[in-house]
Design a protein that fits this description.
Helix content is 67%, strand content 0%. With 427 residues, the protein is mostly helical. The relative contact order is 0.17.
Length: 427
Amino acid sequence: RVFSMMWVVFGHTLLWPLQSTGYTNEGEIVPFKGADHAVMATWSGQAIQSAEFSVDSFFFMSGFLASYVALKKLRGSSPLTVAKTAPGLYLHRYLRISPLYFIIVWFYYEVVPLTTASSPYFDLTVEKQFCKDNWLKEVTYVKDFWPMDGLKCYGVSWYLSDDMIFFWFTPLLFAVFFWDKLAGYLLPVCGAIASIAYSWWAAYHFDWRLGTFDGSKYQPDYYVPPWTRCPPYLIGIVCGYFYRDWKQNNRSLPSGSRLGCLVDAALLVVSFTIMGACVYGAHSDAQDVPGQMRDADNYAYIALSKPAWSIGLAIFAFLCFELRLPLMARFLSLSVFQCISKLTFAMYLLHPLVLTVYFANKVDAVRYTNLEFTMDYLGVLVVTTALALIAYLFIELPLSAIEKMLMDKLLGGGGGSSGGRGAGGKA
């Protein structure tokens, strides 16, 4: 959660000036006319555009936690009993994520403009009016069914909409699993395959291009809609099923032998190879504007990269869960990460606000240098974390306590079995 959130802020810190102040030396970032020295054309620069995969990590975690916790809480339940939990789950999730989100959106459109009134780079008037005109889509989290609207009111909230829509289907998926385990596995697998097949066809039919500056409809038509972004979530659900079964049946990988070491090494190599191919597989496309990747490779990458990332992440997580990578597992489980992970939901919602205030108060266009970008990134990250801590302590934590008391009173404590908080939120 923590590293994924840092990756989100990393990518947005570089891209934010491109939609506001601009860069005085944009050619140092974007490879216009094949400038191979431009940041995005370098191997290290692939980490910027590949920050998209951080969102898929969150989708995977949401799906995994939802199914893993649900199987634990609802063990032995009938399909009908599982289905009856749906209203409580929906209410719990809505009350869990909405208050902080609504407060931050209000602050962004009502308070932030007071700090950017003299800025020639930001005018939130149109966005604010769009939010007012489409408030019902926003508060019901259905706006991503209209993909062009998904990015128009507090752009990053498209993720919350997708994650909520995915969650709506989880009671049905769980009911099918408790009815027939094989069908329970096959349903999300078939859903993921159908989504991948559609994305592949649509990428070809509508000529979606991966490059940020290629001018295609990749962003609104692929990146936002729930029907194209659901595979990582569905893969997470299947992995939650699998790992719960694995633990209940007391299974374990071979250990204490050469075979065990070979299995661990093989799984780690497969995991890193898959994730490395996802991060760096589009390097050839980033050498020019428009991108230079062959059409067939471009369409395949769009359809397959995000599901593949989720599979690679699942293998790595499995090795950590089983303590086959003990040093890595201990490092990722340090208390400092556990503490900061509680802030990632607020960090996700707050970082656009911090970026807007920061760049709106620039007196001139930004000049890119590695040092300047590093200082900007670290500053935005620290301020975002500090504000997230305040929001967590004085808004999220008290409201979550009230929500818990309300759910206990309404549903006898049974309403929060598998509801998460969205971006990195705990189940």
